[in-house]
Write a structure and sequence with these properties.
Helix content: 40-55%
Number of strands: 33
Strand order of the largest sheet: 1-6-7-8-9-10-11
Largest sheet: 7 strands, mixed
Radius of gyration: 34 Å
Length: 988
Amino acid sequence: MTSTDTSEKGLEALIEKSLIETSHYVKGQPNDYDRIYCIDKTQLLQFLRQTQPKEIAQLETKYQTKFEQKLLQRISDQIKTKGIIDILRNGIKADEVSLTLYYKKPDSQLNPQAIQRYNANIFSVTRQLQYSDNRKRLSLDMAIFINGLPVITFELKNNLTKQNVKDAMRQYQKDRDPKEPLFSFARCLVHFAVDDELIFMTSELKGEKTVFLPFNKGQKSEQNLLFPDSAGNPINPNGLKTDYLWKQILTKSSLSNIIEKYAHIVKEKAEGKQEKKKLIFPRYHQLDTVRQLLTDVKTDGIGKRYLIQHSAGSGKSNSISWLSHQLVELTDTSETHTIFDSIIVVTDRIVLDKQIRDTIKQFAQVKGVVEAITAGSKQLQQALENGKKIIITTVFKFTYIVKEIQSLANKRFAIIIDEAHSSQSGSTAAKMSASLNKETGEEEETTEDRILRIIEEQKLCNNASYFAFTATPKNKTLETFGIQNPADGKFYPFHNYSMKQAIEEEFILDVLQNYTTYNSYHKLQKKIEDNPQFDTKRAKKKLKKYVEGHPHAIRQKAEIMIDHFMDEVISQRKINGQAKAMVVTNGIESAIRYKLAFDIYLREIACPYKTIVAFSGSKEVDGKSETESSMNSFPSKDIADEFKKDEYRFLIVADKYQTGFDQPLLHTMYVDKTIADIKAVQTLSRLNRAYKPDKKDTFILDFVNSADTIKAAFDPFYKTTILSEETDLNRLNDLQDALDAYQVYSPDQVNEFMDLFINGVERDRLDPILDECQQTFKDDLDENDQADFKKKAKSFVRNYEFLVQIRPFRNPDWESLKTFLKLLVNKLPSLNDADLSKGILESIDMDSYRIERQTTLAIQLEGSVEIAPPPPDTSGSKYAPNIDVLSNIIQDFNARFGNIQWTEQDQVRRFLFEDLPEEISKDEEYQNAKQYSDRQNAKITFDKKLVDKFQEFIFDHTDVYRKFTEDPDFKAWLSDTLFNMDYDKKAA
């Protein structure tokens, strides 16, 4: 009796048997493999002679005795030049003869000839392949060939013999020489390291620097979870944990699908470096997602909605590209009709346009499949008429394009939404649906018919399927695109690749492992004799913003950031010395001041690194109008490319590049802005991109937010994001009851208004009704009731526009009220809400400022938090200011933010930014220059007086005086900063 073979060879035999018996592979013989040309010549010649006898006879006649050598040399050279993917898809030319080296899998079963050709392909598996011509005894555990051409190699290990997948990866890294022809770039599709529990893959061998990615299903950390949330593979009751590789992924049909629809080569060019090619082989979660989506659409047809929650940095762009081009050719179950006429990709990422184009180019033989909409609706109509299959547009462009699209109800669309939470406000989705539903030549309708049609137009249209991709779905996104589980009423995504699993698989980094918080302390003083009253709540907000944005505070924080970057990042050779940083600021003025402060301090310490600033529009700071291009000295469109250059290490941003920006060399982030919820996750996730093997960690220094705030932001998106329940439809009834009770309008007025509106009357027929209601609002409601009415009216409109998309109701009264209120609200007067904190900044000065490091910790996430629907709106009321005198406001502010022991260094800061400028501003000569001369001459006088006044304090502040006289950059910076502060105060 023979016992079970639990050795590594036993695993080889198990895989070979499955591929041969179940997937109908052929058993390859190691001796048939030509080590010089990397070809199984027996299988190659068998395939060519069976499928293309005339072409082979022609070459045999031409080459005579050198036929085999010349043919193998030509094929080998072409693979070396173009890669295996191109050769399999497009074949080769040998002299005047064209040879097909692989017949593609037919899209349907309706073409017997295509099926016959495909079945002629020879899929084979060879064990113990001796691949080296120089080191004859070296052998691979296993390789897969198609028509004699190697496409996949394997190194197998077995936990039962105390070796695992890590040993297999090490074997590739240490023992498999990338200079061997078989292991050269793009000679094979992929190299798998496999054991009985885990699978890893790489598409390029680079010796010790070879980077492996997981190709695992993931497993559930708790049995009741709907999706896997952890690295690894689940227990397989019917076999090995990893047998999905040979039983599912490597079947003939599946492998053909990967070769034809997924695998491709991308080109990456970094400034000053040679263009690099990269072979993309899909990861398991990407392949699983796209295939599940295609299967569901093929089975159920058009009109469904799909939410795909994939972690930031998990390759959503590739998934969207693969899905887009396969939806174009997807047929229904009869396999005779394509399901979609056009695929519309809605994205805010410019890079996605190019990526989809470049990806499609490798799959589609027809030019012009993809078109980006840049001009408007006419361009979109033209694209549809010209048969453009994939149309890419931004959220902004789409909302205005769709208004004018006509006669599209007979078309069928797939709408792919990138980062769905930012793309699907109620009104945006309604416009999208209305435009795609619109038909011409309707029959005569009654008023109610028209209202009901408007309601139907606002729903997600039946002639489109929606595919929403996001890492951070909001409650409305889940309710709009998610799947409701009948058992518990909760909403789930269609597919999930969680942040937790992505981190555990080391596909992305955990950005919360090195999180450092800072506290700032500041002391203000009153600079006027009077003691005026201000609104305390708004005043304190202004004071906080004032001190944090003060040039001195910016300078101090800039020094901390740069010193940290140089000492903890550059000196520690993070990312092999290539690490970059992002500075997240609280606004454009702050970003500009940071840029100026960074540049000055970098010059002072003779640092070779440079900064780039990113913000929208222009902003006047210290009397000078600044834009991105004026500060960076290159166009805004070049920021992402310029930041790739080695000299640029700091990207200073104000509400730009905080979402969708993919720069793997970003290692450190300095946060000087309040962030929470999705914004926090998106912003901090800019650091999570892997850059193997050099990027091993990240740093975050946060000057504003607490660790608890950040934990609360990340937790809902750590595993699967679940919406606990649907939005209660009675919310609209409750809001309507409350609005009706104010009697600002009557039902008759709403109905009369709607009847006129949908019949397209001139607008002057509508205004009398709105004006009458406006007058009632002003006469009959006090200020608190007015505030409550306006808030509830806006809430009704917002809730209706969301719910009408996703709920099967047809309520003409709600539609009429929504339309009426939407216009009435714009006519209602603004409530008297005077800013009673105005003028406080002119009444105070900063006495002292200090920043102190608090703690560095690893924030631990749990991921067990469900999100709730948007809460019902509370009652509105007029803002009630809390008035207090200036001295009390300053005292309270200092107690909260400056309750520490102040040092002499703090007094130096007060001298530089308060006492010294005050002394100069009192000088008569400078006052005259300010009043009677231009800015340039006033600056000359200021510089002279600055030197004079400094000398008066030489014994009080010796160190800072020495710095002023010996450091020209510091002197210039101080002079410019103080002069601008003083001179622009005069201008204001």
